[in-house]
Amino acid sequence: MGLMVDSVIVADNLATIRDMYIIRTLGKCADSTQLDNALRRVLNL
Fold first, then answer.
1. Long-range contact list for 33-40, CB < 8 A, 24+ apart?
2. What is the pTM of this model?
């Protein structure tokens, strides 16, 4: 997925933060289909 380190996304504690609190980007996710599907399932969307 292009991330610099192995990552785990935990969806049981989601929060929205302001951009000013983001110090740096760890990587990017070019294809977020799996992530989108997992969040839809967990959030009952």
1. 35/9, 38/9, 38/11, 39/11
2. 0.47
